[in-house]
Design brief:
Strand content: under 5%
Order of helices and strands: HHHH
Distance between the termini: 25 Å
Radius of gyration: 20 Å
Structural class: mainly alpha
Length: 137
């Protein structure tokens, strides 16, 4: 009986990894497009609706995993759910600090909103990395 491995050999991942590194290098070395400065990609109401959808999905995933967790389920699922709770709450702070919103502790600004957005994405990326490399038991 042949056992099928669920892990992909590194030599099969090398072309994909090379492609992603190449795309990253091209984007990183591309000079900034000054013609797009000051262009508003998304209006405030559209941004708020998109962020609220993201917050609701994050909190729903947290709620489902938290209520369905038991000792038989893998621990990384609970950690992932808690990370999504943190991401949802930080996204809420990001929504409240977007330029054009009323003051939320400090005056709203683009830098404040970007910092909240980067914090949420960094937390999620680190937890996903941790879950990917942690053994599931």
């Amino acid at each position: 009986m042949r056992v099928i491995s669920t892990t992909m050999p590194l030599r099969r991942l090398f072309p994909l990894l090379s492609l992603l590194i190449g795309i990253f290098a091209v984007v990183w070395l591309t000079p900034p497009l000054h013609a797009l400065e000051g262009v508003h990609v998304m209006s405030l109401p559209v941004h708020i609706v998109a962020e609220v959808f993201s917050i609701v999905v994050s909190l729903m995933v947290f709620g489902v995993v938290w209520n369905a967790s038991s000792r038989e389920r893998p621990a990384p699922m609970v950690v992932l759910a808690c990370a999504l709770l943190a991401v949802g709450l930080i996204d809420l702070a990001h929504t409240l600090s977007f330029n054009g919103m009323p003051d939320f502790v400090t005056p709203a600004s683009v830098e404040k909103a970007i910092n909240f957005w980067l914090a949420a994405r960094s937390i999620f990326a680190l937890v996903i990395l941790w879950v990917a490399f942690r053994p599931w038991r």
